[in-house]
Write a structure and sequence with these properties.
Elements lengths: L7 H13 L2 H8 L3 H15 L4 E4 L2 E4 L1 H27 L7 E5 L1 H6 L1 H11 L5 E5 L2 H9 L5 E4 L8 E15 L29 H5 L4 E3 L4 H9 L10 E3 L2 H9 L5 E4 H10 L3 E3 L7 E9 L6 H15 L5
Parallel strand pairs: 3-4, 3-5, 7-8
Antiparallel strand pairs: 1-2, 5-11, 6-9, 6-10, 6-11
């Protein structure tokens, strides 16, 4: 079935109707005529298949269905605004007032919210964002190519100053049909002869001996995994891929388990496309760091971005 996505401008217009209590006022704020606004909302109603407005000689008001759609649309438009803010940063000039680089996990799941908040605080600041792996972020910070960077690596080069801004954790994930999947689904009182009970953690030895789908060398996730699993008993990777999305697809199709950031797999865990497997004897937590050149005081918009990132996580003070 072909999905027709609702027009974002029409959703924004519907929100204005809800806020202003008038189609005419909403149309004026939207910069269109009332007749054009009415046609847009008629089209939106047909696309969604629910009545959004009660129209009468005294005006238009939201229907009960329309009110629900408005509540859902707020989140949709907020996400779209995050997307546009992030894209503007990716398209930012190299001479932008603040030059930032972020590892892929940070850029995908945390940076959009940080940039939206920075724009509210400093609306005139131009941000130039580079998305690379953690190793490249550190190199760029060391060479002075960026004002601040954000990484997942648990170890920071001595040439850089670091400041923890958030905490993440790695998770072992498998496809629902994988033999380890039952370990991620505890059932009280269940016992099957010859098989581990549901919810029983995986051992560190079993994880180490299993070929995994992994991120590429230089990735913060890969670096953290290599520090956790060391020694002659560690099996070589079955596949190396350069993005979280590619690793998740490989796991979902049954290639092998993987170890990824919880940020990267939260949606797949919620809807059951991936299963988290508990592991005994390994601390899978890891800090996420802001980094910049050593012996350099972080000031201006870069310092504000780091402060906002840290505050978003736990209300910590300025570095």
């Amino acid at each position: 079935m072909t999905v027709r996505w609702p027009d974002l401008a029409s959703l924004e217009l519907l929100l204005l109707v809800a806020e202003q209590g008038s189609l005419g006022k909403a149309a004026k704020l939207h910069g269109i005529t009332q007749a054009s606004a009415s046609r847009r909302l008629d089209t939106l109603e047909r696309e969604l298949g629910v009545p959004l407005l009660h129209r009468s000689t005294t005006g238009s008001r939201l229907s009960p269905q329309g009110q629900v759609v408005v509540d859902w649309a707020r989140a949709t438009l907020a996400a779209a605004n995050d997307l546009l803010t992030g894209v503007r940063a990716l398209c930012g000039r190299t001479d932008a007032r603040v030059r930032v680089a972020a590892s892929m996990t940070v850029a995908e799941y945390l940076m959009p919210g940080w940039l939206v908040t920075l724009r509210r605080v400093l609306p005139d600041v131009e941000v130039g964002l580079r998305v690379v792996n953690s190793g490249e972020v550190c190199r760029m910070a060391t060479d002075g190519e960026i004002d601040a960077g954000f990484i997942e690596s648990p170890v920071v080069p001595r040439e850089l100053t670091s400041w923890p801004v958030a905490e993440d954790r790695l998770v072992v994930v498998v496809a629902p049909g994988h033999a380890w999947a039952r370990r991620g689904k505890p059932l009280r009182g269940e016992s099957l002869d010859g098989e581990p009970p549901r919810g029983e953690p995986l051992s560190r030895a079993d994880l180490a001996a299993t070929p995994l789908v992994v991120r590429e060398p230089g990735s913060g996730t890969r670096y953290a995994l290599d520090r956790l699993l060391t020694g002659p008993d560690v099996a070589p990777p079955i596949l190396e891929l350069s993005s979280n999305a590619a690793v998740k697809v490989a796991v979902e199709t049954g290639v092998a388990p993987a170890v990824l950031s919880h940020l990267a797999v939260a949606a797949e865990l919620r809807d059951g496309r991936l299963i988290e497997v508990p592991v005994a004897g390994l601390d899978l937590r890891r800090p996420l760091f802001a980094v910049w050149r050593a012996r350099t005081r972080l000031t201006g918009p870069a310092a504000e971005l780091v402060r906002l990132a840290r505050t978003a996580a736990h209300g910590a003070p300025r570095p």
